[in-house]
Amino acid sequence: MKYTITILLLFATLLSAFDKDDLLLLKKEGDCVGCDLRDANLSGIYLEGSDLSEADLRGANLKNADLVYSNFYGANLKGANLYQANAKGADFSYANLTDANCSSMVFKKTKLVGAKFIKTDLSHARMWHLDLRKSSIKKCNFSEAMIGSSEVDMKKLKSSNLAGVIFWKDSGTK
Question: Domain holding 157: CATH number?
Answer without folding.
Answer: 2.160.20.80
